[in-house]
Protein: 4-hydroxy-3-polyprenylbenzoate decarboxylase
Amino acid sequence: MRSPWIIGVSGASGTPYPRAVIGALLDAGEAVDLVISRAARLTLLDETGASVRDAHWKDDVAAWLGRDLGDADLAYWPAGDLAAGPSSGSYPAKGMVVVPASTAACAGIAIGLSKDLLQRAAEVTLKERRRTVIVPRETPVTRSHLEHLIALHDAGAVVLPASPGFYGSGAGATAQQLIDFVAGKVLDALAVPHELFTRWRGELGGGQRSPLGGP
Ligand SMILES: Cc1cc2nc3c(=O)[nH]c(=O)nc-3n(C[C@H](O)[C@H](O)[C@H](O)COP(=O)(O)O)c2cc1C
Structure:
């Protein structure tokens, strides 16, 4: 039985993150179901120039991801399709990642608004106690943003801010290395193996431990 990860892309800045997450999941042989909110079409257009049209999703998503989807186990559900498979707990999804997660998506999922398929699928994933990862992208944040994130945490989600670390790649890290750091943390949360970043090995500065004192 096909058991995909649902990837929900909402309308926060940060479209390179889902691009990296989807690519790494497909590289790992995982099945992926993609849901792109209406607002995310605007961020995609703004940040990449890519339009995603429901009727031409395969060509459009292939262009966005920069890969041939010929053999990829990738399905696409229009965000307005509330009768789609992922809107039901009986759909055999492994779990879901909302990346990036807008403050609106965080609020909607936290209060069970289900205003579109992305929010409904996330709510279903939480109620079924399946792995749910929420990657918020906003700064600074209000009290209400924080309260919604606490509600999501309490409902069982992993709240994983789009907050790249510079260890591993150093202060001269490229944008792609910082993107891959966040994507790698998402795959860690899903327990899917990846090689998106160099893991911390307890060695400062690439292997040189500083003594406590001395010249
Ligand atoms: C170019 C652009 C960038 C945006 N960036 C963010 C952002 O970083 N974080 C956020 O929470 N909302 C951001 N928004 C606002 C959301 O798109 C808006 O709240 C929208 O209603 C979210 O809807 P959705 O959660 O259904 O995708 C941005 C909007 C645009 C047009």
Remarks:
- The longest helix spans residues 175-190.
- The pocket of flavin mononucleotide is lined by residues 10-13, 37, 39-40, 42-43, 46, 102-105, 137-138 (CB under 6 Å).
- Strands lie at 5-9, 32-36, 74-78, 95-101, 131-136, 158-159.
- The chain has one domain: 5-190.
